[in-house]
Structures are given as structure tokens and as C-alpha cells.
């Protein structure tokens, strides 16, 4: 008697042989109700690209923001596939690609202007790829590329964080914040982190020197002065952060700068940034994971057909660490 699992595998192979895959797509902008689990064409690749068989995809706030239409003026064509964090294996390489081969375990943060990773396959330019860290399972690796690179880019490429400088990190239990705490400590900085009461121990385990429960304490009263603020929250938290910066200090934010004149008034600099993915940077991050110096905090996993629940959790703002969509159960 043929087992149900074997029948499902037969269906998958038949679907792929016809050039089709299962994916979650958006046909119109709106709430999570617009997400559709359906068949779509397996993407073709250009000479400088790699086709990845997706094992897992990471869920990020940019996913639901794009779904709601925050960036609909960038000429993105409907329908499209969301999701811009991936770990999987190389299925096919373009004619110009020599660094990767079929079967390689890889991870990447694909360009968000293209179809994403809530799918069985995704096409990614080779320069965005790196070999996935071998120390952790593939489904965990899917939670690394966007968040870890955003933390790295903000801290070092824009913030110029150095050894013995002091830094305040807001949202330290979130996807980006949890990596920021660890990377700042690896760099030798003195790290002060804010989080909610239920995540204090988690943030402390990542090496923060001081952890402030923002539900019980006002960080402006607890902190004297710091050299840098890394802000993943925005709003009032960002506004009040100027009060704790040393003169000449830097506020680096993953969200918009609300008051463009605040930095000048406080004699500091403030900037937001867009993270451009880079395979070489991602390879360095993978090496830190393989050396057990950098860890991935996972909040919850969902199967591909439950992408709606995954995005709803992300949008709630209550997730500690990363949310993962498992595309292939063997990942």
C-alpha cells in the first residue's frame, strides 16, 4: 500500500516536472487575508543567478509592510511572492556562476524588488549568496541573512562602532536587535540593551552588559551617556534617545528619523539606512555562527500554507527573535 507521504512526494515531483511550484502570492495590497497559497511558475534564472530550492524562509516586518502597500510605487508587478530571507540548496546555476554548484547549502537575503522566498524555489543573484553555516540546521539559517546583515551594516558600516565605545540598543530581543547585541559584544563595545520584562534573561544571555526592562524603567534615567544608539523602534523611543548621547555621538536607526533637526540641536549625528545584501558579508556572519560566537533566536515556525499566521505574528510586534516559514519539512 502506498503511504500518504509517498503520494505527496509523487505530486511534488510531478508539479516540478511541469515547471510549477507552490508559493504564497499577493494579488492585491491589503491585510494578511490577501495572501494566497497557490501554484506558480518556477522562476527562470539569468546567467549570473542561482535557482535555490527553498528549505525555509525568514519572516521580516518588510514582508507585511510591502503587502500593505508601503512600497507599491516601485513598479512591482502583481501578483508577487513575498519573503526576502532564504536558506536552501542550489538547484541550478547560471552560465556565469562558478562559485556555487548544484546541491550546495546556501543562504541569502534576496532583493526585495523581486519575487521572494515564500515558495518552493527562488532565483537569486550569485553575489547575494553565501554558503550556509554548517553548525545550525537549515531552517535556523533562514532567520539570519536580513536581520544579521542589517545589524552589521548599522553598527559598523554606518555607526563605525569600535572597541570600548558604549552603545544603547533598542528592541534588543527582536530579530535585528538580538544580532546587534551579539555583534557589538564581539566587537568589544560596552552594550546597554532595552527589552520587555519577559525577554530580559534572553538578552542578557547574548552578552549585554546592562539590560533595561522598558516596561519598568525609564532608560533616560538609568543611563548617563553613550557614544551610540542603535534604534529599531522609532517614535518616542527614538526621540528620547538623543538625551543619552554624548556630544558628537551617533544615532543609527532601522526606521525613519522622525525629527530631522533633533541631531543638530543635540550636537550629534542621526541617520537611517537601507541594507544592501552582500554575499561576502554574509560569509563572515556564517563563520561567526560556525565558531559558536553568534546565535540565532527563533520565536516560532510555520508551514508555508500558514504564511498568514506568520505575518500576523510579525505584525503584532510580540515576537522575540525570528519567525520562520518551513517550506521543506526535511530542512
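Sequence proposed for the structure above (331 residues):
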Amino acid at each position: 500500500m502506498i503511504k500518504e507521504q509517498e503520494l505527496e512526494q509523487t505530486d511534488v515531483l510531478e508539479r516540478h516536472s511541469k515547471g510549477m511550484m507552490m508559493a504564497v502570492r499577493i494579488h492585491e495590497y491589503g491585510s494578511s487575508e490577501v495572501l494566497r497559497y497557490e501554484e506558480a511558475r518556477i522562476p527562470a534564472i539569468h546567467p549570473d543567478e542561482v535557482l535555490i530550492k527553498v528549505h525555509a524562509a525568514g519572516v521580516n516586518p518588510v514582508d507585511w509592510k510591502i503587502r500593505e502597500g508601503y512600497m507599491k510605487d516601485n513598479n512591482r508587478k502583481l501578483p508577487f511572492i513575498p519573503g526576502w530571507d532564504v536558506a536552501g540548496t542550489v538547484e541550478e546555476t547560471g552560465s556565469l556562476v562558478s562559485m556555487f554548484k548544484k546541491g550546495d547549502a546556501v543562504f541569502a537575503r534576496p532583493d526585495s524588488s523581486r519575487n521572494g522566498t515564500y515558495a518552493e524555489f527562488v532565483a537569486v543573484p550569485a553575489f547575494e549568496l553565501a554558503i550556509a553555516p554548517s553548525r545550525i540546521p537549515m531552517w535556523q539559517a533562514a532567520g539570519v541573512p536580513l536581520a544579521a546583515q542589517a545589524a552589521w551594516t548599522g553598527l559598523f558600516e554606518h555607526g563605525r562602532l569600535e572597541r570600548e565605545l558604549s552603545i544603547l540598543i533598542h528592541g534588543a530581543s527582536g530579530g535585528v536587535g538580538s544580532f546587534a547585541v551579539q555583534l557589538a559584544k564581539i566587537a568589544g563595545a560596552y552594550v546597554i540593551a532595552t527589552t520587555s520584562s519577559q525577554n530580559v534573561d534572553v538578552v542578557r544571555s547574548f552578552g549585554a552588559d546592562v539590560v533595561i526592562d522598558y516596561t519598568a524603567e525609564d532608560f533616560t534615567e538609568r543611563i548617563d551617556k553613550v557614544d551610540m544608539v542603535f534604534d529599531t523602534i522609532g517614535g518616542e523611543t527614538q526621540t528620547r534617545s538623543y538625551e543619552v548621547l554624548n556630544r558628537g555621538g551617533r544615532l543609527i536607526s532601522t526606521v525613519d528619523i522622525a525629527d530631522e533637526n533633533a541631531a543638530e540641536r543635540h550636537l550629534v549625528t542621526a541617520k537611517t539606512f537601507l541594507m544592501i545584501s552582500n554575499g561576502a558579508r554574509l560569509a563572515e556572519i556564517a563563520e561567526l555562527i560556525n565558531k559558536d560566537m553568534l546565535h540565532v533566536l527563533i520565536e516560532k515556525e510555520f508551514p508555508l500554507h500558514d504564511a498568514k499566521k506568520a505575518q500576523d505574528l510579525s505584525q503584532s510586534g510580540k515576537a522575540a527573535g525570528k519567525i520562520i516559514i518551513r517550506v521543506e519539512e526535511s530542512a
